[in-house]
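Re: that chain you flagged

S.,

Sorry for the slow reply, it's been a week of failed gels. I finally had a moment to sit down with the sequence you sent. For the record, here it is as I used it:
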Amino acid sequence: MLPEPHRLRRRSDFSSTVRRGQRAARRDVVVHALAGTQAESLISDPGPRFGLVVSKAVGPAVIRHRVARRLRHICVSLVREVPEGTNVVIRALPGAATASSKDLDRQLRSGLRKLDLLVSVGNSV
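Prediction finished late last night. Pasting the structure tokens below so you have them in one place:
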């Protein structure tokens, strides 16, 4: 489960991230991100915050919830790799219903790398 301080909850946070942030589209997901001082956060924890958009186009409720659970699990592993103060909205596309968790992880990380928001953790040379 994604801890409360790392979740986007308010509609205004989703809207500002999607409208004012950068976007990286992949086959099964679209990653929207609003980084740094642009992200207006009223939460005291400065860590990154994630939000999910899984519409009915993805499939029936059971499939949508499965996709959301997979994406949430991926977000938990990304908390330490995304810079503090970043808002990330992940929009699932219909192909996400049949994509494996490994594919979704790879696509999400690829989108964050394209936006230059993925920081290496623990691998210093």
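What I noticed first: The longest helix spans residues 61-78.

Talk soon,
D.
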